C-alpha cells in the first residue's frame, strides 16, 4: 500500500477522529466526506505531517511520515487546499510551472519537456486563453483550476485536494473530476479529494472515506453510501415551529420540494392531510376528501380554501 493509517488518532489537543485503520494504493481515487468541523482538513494536514498525530502511525511509501522531510513529502504528495495564498505578480502559467520546482532549484530553467507538460495541463484544464493572465485577473473558478494545475505539474505519485470543485460550475467540476480519474487510472496516481458535492463526485471515486461520530469509515463508495441513509436522503429542515407537515409519500426530490414549499407558505398544522406523488400530479386527501393538484400553485389554492 502507498498510504497507510494504523490505529491513528487525528486532532489537536483532543482527537477529532479516533482509531483510523485504512489505506490507499497507487491507482486509487478516494472521496473524503463529512460535515464541517469533523476533521477532514485536519486529516489531510496530518497525512502531510503539517500537524502531528495524537496516536498511531501514518506510513507513506513504506516510511513513517514522521521520518520524512517536508521536501520528501512534497515529492510524494502534491496538495491543493481550498484556500491558498495567491503569489503576487504571477501569471497563470507561472503558477502552474511552479509545480515543477519541487524537483529543481528555484533558479533552474524548465526544459522543453517540462514546458510541453505544462502546456498539456493548461489544455486539459481548458485554460489556454488565460495562460498569460495575471492571477488577480482570473475568476475564482479559473484560479482554482490553476492551483490544481500546479499540483498536476508537480508529478507526484499522490495528489490530495481539499474541496477541489469549490467555485466551479457543473461543466468545470466534471472536467476536473474526469481528469483526476484519468490520472489515477492511466498514470497510476493515488488521488484523495474532499467534497461536499458528493452526488457528482461519487461518479468518479472508487473508494470513500466517511468521517462521522469521531470515526473514519472506509470502503467502496457505493457500499458506504448504501449503509447511510443520511447521505442518500435529503434532510428536511424544520425551521418553523408552527408548521406541522402532512404525510408525504413521494420520491426524495419531490418530497423535499413539497416540504420546502409548504413550510415557507403555511405556518399551520397540516398533519391531517396525505400528499401522494403520482408521477405527474399530487393526490391530496384526508378522511373526508380527495383532490388532484397539477402544480404547487394548485396546492396553494387548495390549502387556502381548506383553511
Q: Distance between the terminal alpha carbons, to the nearest Å?
A: 64 Å
Structural class: alpha/beta
Assign the CATH architecture of the largest domain. Answer: 3-Layer(aba) Sandwich
Please, how many helices? 11
Protein name: ABC transporter
Domain ABC transporter: 1-238
InterPro entries: AAA+_ATPase, ABC_transporter-like_ATP-bd, Metal_Ion_Import_ABC, P-loop_NTPase
GO molecular function, one term: ATP hydrolysis activity
Structure description:
- There is one protein chain.
- The chain has 307 residues and is α/β, with parallel strands linked by helices.
- It has two domains: 3-232, P-loop containing nucleotide triphosphate hydrolases (Rossmann fold); 247-306, no CATH class.
- Helix content is 35%, strand content 24%.
- It is built from eleven helices and 14 strands.
- It has helices at 40-47, 70-76, 92-98, 112-124, 140-154, 170-186, 198-201, 221-227, 229-232, 252-265, 296-306, and strands at 3-11, 15-24, 29-33, 55-60, 63-64, 77-80, 158-162, 190-194, 207-212, 215-220, 247-249, 274-277, 282-285, 290-293.
- Strands 6-7-8-3-9-10 form a six-stranded mixed β-sheet, sandwiched between helices. A four-stranded antiparallel β-sheet has the order 2-1-4-5, with helices on one face. The chain has a four-stranded mixed β-sheet with strand order 11-12-13-14, covered by helices on one side.
- The N and C termini lie far apart (64 Å).
- The model has no long low-confidence stretch (mean pLDDT 90).
- Residues 1-238 form the ABC transporter domain.
- GO terms for molecular function: ATP binding; ATP hydrolysis activity.
- This is ABC transporter.
Amino acid at each position: 500500500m502507498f498510504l497507510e493509517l494504523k490505529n491513528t488518532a487525528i486532532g489537536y489537543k483532543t482527537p477529532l477522529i479516533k482509531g483510523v485503520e485504512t489505506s490507499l494504493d497507487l491507482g486509487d481515487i478516494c472521496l473524503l466526506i463529512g460535515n464541517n468541523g469533523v476533521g477532514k482538513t485536519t486529516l489531510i494536514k496530518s497525512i502531510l505531517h503539517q500537524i502531528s498525530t495524537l496516536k498511531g502511525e501514518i506510513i507513506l511509501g513504506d516510511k513513517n511520515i514522521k521520518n520524512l522531510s517536508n521536501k520528501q513529502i512534497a515529492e510524494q504528495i502534491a496538495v491543493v487546499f481550498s484556500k491558498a495564498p495567491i503569489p503576487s505578480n504571477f501569471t497563470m502559467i507561472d503558477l502552474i510551472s511552479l509545480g515543477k520546482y519541487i524537483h529543481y532549484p528555484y533558479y533552474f530553467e524548465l526544459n522543453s519537456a517540462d514546458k510541453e507538460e505544462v502546456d498539456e495541463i493548461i489544455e486539459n484544464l481548458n485554460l489556454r486563453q488565460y495562460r498569460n493572465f495575471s492571477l488577480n485577473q482570473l475568476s475564482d473558478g479559473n484560479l482554482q483550476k490553476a492551483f490544481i494545475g500546479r499540483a498536476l505539474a508537480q508529478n507526484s505519485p499522490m495528489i490530495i485536494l481539499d474541496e477541489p470543485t469549490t467555485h466551479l460550475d457543473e461543466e468545470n467540476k466534471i472536467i476536473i473530476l474526469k481528469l483526476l480519474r484519468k490520472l489515477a487510472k492511466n498514470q497510476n496516481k493515488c488521488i484523495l479529494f474532499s467534497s461536499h458535492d458528493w452526488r457528482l463526485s461519487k461518479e468518479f471515486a472508487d473508494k470513500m472515506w466517511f468521517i462521522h461520530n469521531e470515526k473514519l469509515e472506509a470502503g467502496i463508495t457505493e457500499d458506504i453510501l448504501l449503509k447511510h441513509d443520511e447521505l442518500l436522503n435529503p434532510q428536511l429542515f424544520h425551521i418553523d415551529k408552527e408548521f406541522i407537515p402532512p404525510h408525504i409519500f413521494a420520491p426524495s426530490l419531490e418530497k423535499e420540494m413539497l416540504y420546502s414549499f409548504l413550510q415557507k407558505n403555511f405556518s399551520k398544522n397540516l398533519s391531517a392531510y396525505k400528499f401522494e406523488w403520482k408521477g405527474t400530479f399530487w393526490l391530496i386527501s384526508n378522511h373526508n376528501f380527495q383532490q388532484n393538484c397539477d402544480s404547487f400553485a394548485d396546492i396553494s389554492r387548495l390549502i387556502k380554501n381548506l383553511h
